[in-house]
Each structure stands twice: as structure tokens, then as C-alpha cells.
């Protein structure tokens, strides 16, 4: 998920650069603008410019999944990021200012916010507005782009379809003005039986290369598995478990999103066998390195497709190698919590890490934890009050006893005088 947001940030930067004036590009500002102030309701302490809504959505979704009741201010912050038209930007430093034609809307952030708000409940109006907005920015080919108005790509198309499914929509019925369905937009990114090398068959691509070839992309593939199955990021362990299989070739019958998802799962399982994890070449590097975020995505995707056995080695790799990657990162910790949930693993004992506690520590204290803290304070005050009351009653009691003693003496004197 971290990698997906990095790619999204690069895409956003590219769009901004295309529209920038030549003079601005030729004379960069002598100093970078100050990082936004981190709002009290937001998870994470790093610059939220490109991932504020994304990481907040994952944090809230993960908390809800494991039975933690998120802080009200955290939920309010997310709801407050929504624009009047239903869309979300990656982050709005001033949520009180109205969104306008300069607002860079983010389909990925909007889709994840839909999943989080739908899961939390009580946000039906906000969810509907976002769903309507997502439908309104569907491209003619049936797919979606990270930035509306740009060409469709496999990641965003998959993420939006998952959100639509979670919200109760039928992606097959969500069609563009040109009559292309969301599923048609998705399936256009799968490498089919004619793909070379054969090992790439079943995978999904991000976007075609300049030469027109569609390269396999593990991130897009993991997201496409969930989209093809009509699932969101929250996956419960499957009752039955079978090994993942390669894409069935030659293809028979009409294109089927569920079959495409199973073929994609087969590609992920086979790719994971090489190192036990996925790899990627980061910008500026010439050698691939371990891709922890996409490995976690792949585990969730395989679990959703009913292939927990195929996900097991990657899950063990994550337990041993994800701590540094996820440290203080709400999106990363949230993703690992969801990976643990999908595989029936205890998120409070994940390779020696309590993911839930670590996630909670990156944002406002959950309502359950806050309630316990308030209860503890109330109890302490009650104890002090009881002690104070005890002292008062001891003094009163002592006074009464003394008074009774005096009364007895006085009574005795009266009797003597009467005698």
C-alpha cells in the first residue's frame, strides 16, 4: 500500500508539472514550502500531503476490524476532508475552505474513505456522495485514473471497483457514458493467454509502456484480485483452502472477473515462490529490493481468493521483516493488521509485534481506551473521595462519641444532684 501511494504521488506530481508554467519550472523556489501542521485528529506524524486521507482510512478500517472503536475526532477528521461534490483530495490542510477547480481530487483516497466510512457505519450520506462522485469520473473505457481526466490505469480501476462493491454497488452495472462497464475497464489490464513471457499470464498491469506493451505489475495484480472478487480490503479467513492455480489457458467462454481474479492470484502465488516476498526496483536503484507493502497486499489477495496455503510463506516473511517498514506508519500498520485478519493470525502477536497497540499509538486514543482511562480517573477520584469521606465521618463519629460521653456524665451528675 505504501508503494501504491508513492506511485500516486508521482502521478500527481507529473500532472502538476504538465500544467506548470515554463518559468516556474525554470526558476524553482529557493526554499521548499513548510510541511503542513499535523491535525490532532489525523493518524501519523509525517507530511500528509499525498496520503492523509489514505492512511487515515486504513487506520480506521483496521481498528474497526479488530474491534477497536476509533476516536470520534479521528472519524470527524476523515468526514471533514470530503468535498461538497463527494470526492476527496489526498489531503486538505484547510478543510473549512470550499473545494474548487484547483482541488486535485484523488480517486484512490475517495475509494478508501468509502470503505472506512461504510465499515464504521452511520455515514451513509457521505458514502453515497463519494460513490456518486466516483461514478461521475469514470473514463469512457470503463476504468479510472488516480487523477480524474487522465488515462485509466489498473491500480485505480481496481481500488474504485472494490469500494463500489463494498458500498453495495454492482460494478458490472456501473457504466461509462460510452457504455463500458467497470468490469470491462478492469479486464483490459489483464495479461492473457497470449502474453509473453508465459510466467506473466494472469497478472494485471498498471498502464501500457510507450511501446504499447503492458508490463505485469504486482501492485495492480493484488488490487485486481480483490476487485474481480468484489471484495474490499477487509477479508475474513476462508472456510476452505486450496492452492492457487495459473490462469486457465486457452481461455474459454466470456471474460469473467472472478476467473480473472483467480488467474491473478495464481500469478502472485508463483511470483512469491522465488523469494518468499515480492520485489520492486525503486526510483534511482538498479537492483530490485524487497517490496514489503505489495507483499502484504498479495497476502490479503491470496486469502480473499481462498489460497491461504499459497500465502503462508509470504505471511511468515512479513512477520520477520515488516517491523521497520511499518514503524510509525498508520497505513503500513493498518495493512498488516488486515493481512493478519485475512489469514486468521493474531495481530497482537505478529512476529513479536502488537500491531494493534502500535497502530493505536500513531493517532488519537481509541474511544475504548479513552473510556478505560476516564474510568480509571473516575475510580481514583472516587477512592480519594471515599478516603476523604472516611476522614470526615471518623471526625464526626469521634465527635458524636465524645458528645455521648459528655451526655452520660451530665446525666450522672443530674442523678446525683437529685439524690
UniProtKB/TrEMBL annotation:
MF term (GO), any: catalytic activity
Signal peptide, first to last residue: 1-26
Residues covered by region (Disordered): 360-388
Keywords: Membrane, Repeat, Signal, Transmembrane, Transmembrane helix
Pfam family, one: Prenyltrans
Keyword set includes Flavoprotein: no
Protein name from the UniProt record: Prenyltransferase alpha-alpha toroid domain-containing protein
Organism this protein belongs to: Streptomyces roseus
Record-annotated membrane-spanning stretches: 392-410
Domain Prenyltransferase alpha-alpha toroid: from-to ranges: 71-171
Bias (Basic and acidic residues) ranges: 372-388
Record's keyword annotation contains ATP-binding: no
Amino acid at each position: 500500500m505504501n508503494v501504491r501511494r508513492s506511485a500516486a504521488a508521482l502521478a500527481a506530481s507529473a500532472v502538476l508539472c504538465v500544467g506548470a508554467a515554463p518559468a516556474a519550472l525554470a526558476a524553482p523556489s529557493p526554499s521548499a514550502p513548510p510541511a503542513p501542521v499535523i491535525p490532532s485528529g489525523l493518524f501519523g506524524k509525517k507530511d500528509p500531503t499525498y496520503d492523509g486521507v489514505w492512511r487515515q482510512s486504513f487506520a480506521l478500517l483496521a481498528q474497526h476490524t479488530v474491534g477497536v472503536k476509533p476516536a470520534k475526532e479521528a472519524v470527524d477528521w476523515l468526514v471533514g476532508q470530503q468535498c461538497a461534490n463527494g470526492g476527496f483530495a489526498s489531503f486538505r490542510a484547510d478543510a473549512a475552505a470550499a473545494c474548487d477547480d484547483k482541488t486535485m481530487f484523488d480517486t484512490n483516497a475517495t475509494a478508501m474513505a468509502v470503505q472506512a466510512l461504510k465499515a464504521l457505519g452511520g455515514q451513509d450520506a457521505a458514502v453515497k456522495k463519494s460513490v456518486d462522485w466516483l461514478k461521475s469520473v469514470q473514463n469512457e473505457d470503463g476504468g479510472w485514473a488516480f487523477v480524474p481526466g487522465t488515462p485509466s490505469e489498473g491500480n485505480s480501476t481496481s481500488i474504485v471497483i472494490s469500494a463500489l462493491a463494498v458500498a453495495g454497488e454492482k460494478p458490472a452495472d456501473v457504466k461509462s457514458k460510452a457504455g463500458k462497464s467497470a468490469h470491462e475497464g478492469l479486464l483490459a489490464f489483464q495479461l492473457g493467454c497470449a502474453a509473453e513471457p508465459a510466467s506473466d499470464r494472469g497478472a494485471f498491469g498498471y498502464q501500457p509502456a510507450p511501446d504499447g506493451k503492458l508490463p505485469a505489475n504486482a501492485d495492480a495484480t493484488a488490487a485486481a484480485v480483490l476487485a474481480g472478487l468484489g471484495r474490499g480490503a477487509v477479508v475474513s479467513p476462508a472456510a476452505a483452502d486450496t492452492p492457487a492455480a495459473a490462469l486457465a489457458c486457452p481461455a474459454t467462454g466470456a471474460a469473467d472477473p472472478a476467473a480473472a481474479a483467480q488467474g491473478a492470484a495464481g500469478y502472485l502465488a508463483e511470483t512469491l515462490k522465488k523469494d518468499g516476498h515480492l520485489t520492486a526496483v525503486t526510483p534511482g536503484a538498479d537492483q530490485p529490493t524487497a517490496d514489503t507493502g505489495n507483499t502484504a497486499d498479495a497476502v490479503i489477495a491470496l486469502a480473499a481468493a481462498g489460497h491461504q496455503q499459497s500465502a503462508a510463506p509470504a505471511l511468515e516473511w512479513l512477520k520477520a521483516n515488516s517491523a521497520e517498514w511499518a514503524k510509525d506508519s498508520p497505513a503500513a500498520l493498518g495493512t498488516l493488521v488486515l493481512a493478519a485478519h485475512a489469514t486468521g493470525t493474531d495481530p497482537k502477536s505478529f512476529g513479536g509485534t502488537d500491531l494493534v497497540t502500535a497502530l493505536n499509538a500513531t493517532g488519537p486514543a481509541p474511544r475504548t481506551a479513552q473510556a478505560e482511562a476516564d474510568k480509571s480517573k473516575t475510580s481514583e477520584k472516587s477512592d480519594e473521595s471515599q478516603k476523604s469521606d472516611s476522614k470526615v465521618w471518623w471526625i464526626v463519629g469521634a465527635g458524636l462519641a465524645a458528645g455521648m460521653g459528655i451526655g452520660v456524665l451530665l446525666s450522672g451528675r443530674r442523678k446525683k444532684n437529685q439524690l
